[in-house]
Amino acid sequence: MEKIKILAIVGSLRQNSYNRQLAVAAGRVIGDRAEFELLDYSDVPLMNEDIEFPAPAAVARVRAAIKAADGIWFFTPEYNHSTPGVLKNLIDWLSRPVSETEPRVLIGKPAALSGITPGISGTALAQDHLVMLISFINMKIMNQPRLVIPHAREQADPDGNLTLTASAPYLEEQAQAFLDFIEANRP
């Protein structure tokens, strides 16, 4: 059987965001048990039906990456008690049919959710909003375990680099659970 392919989608475009660092740490935890890739979608334009068909090149590239993945792992910050606009915009593009004959690319894809924030919520509200959104698109959501990390600065060095001292075991637990979840939901 082919190696599992996990595509990580980070809800922040900032290159050294805590959530990007968390995604990179997840890739290290996954190691050689699966292929792990961070999706770059910084060039995806705002959703606009006037440019939907044919899809812009960036959207076509992102859709191809989604189609090739066996599972999607979301790493989202929390902006104003919700998901960031860039993540919502990406999902809006991915929720649309590719063409009249090709379905939406997220349907049936296994999904996991993680998030880290400097505040106290640990991204729980953003994750709940994301679950509402991706369940409507009919993704297969691994609701437990989710990873919700508050007080990011307590697990970072003075330069803002994550050390994940307290949360490392939970990331490892979620990574293994997601691998098992993907395997259980393979066609």
What layout of secondary structure does this protein have?
Blueprint: E1 5-10, H1 18-30, E2 35-38, H2 57-68, E3 71-75, H3 85-94, E4 110-116, H4 124-136, E5 140-141, E6 147-149, H5 168-184
Parallel strand pairs: 1-2, 1-3, 3-4, 4-5, 4-6
Question: Which features characterize this protein?
Answer:
187 residues
Say how many strands there are. 6
- Portion in strands: 5-15%
Low-confidence stretches: none
Question: Which structural class fits the helix and strand makeup?
Answer: alpha/beta
| DSSP summary: helix tally | 5
Overall mean pLDDT: 95
Straight-line distance between termini: 12 Å
Shape type: globular
Q: What's the alpha carbon Rg, rounded to whole Å? A: 16 Å
Helix content: 25-40%
Reading the helices and strands in chain order gives EHEHEHEHEEH
What profile does the largest beta sheet have? 6 strands, parallel
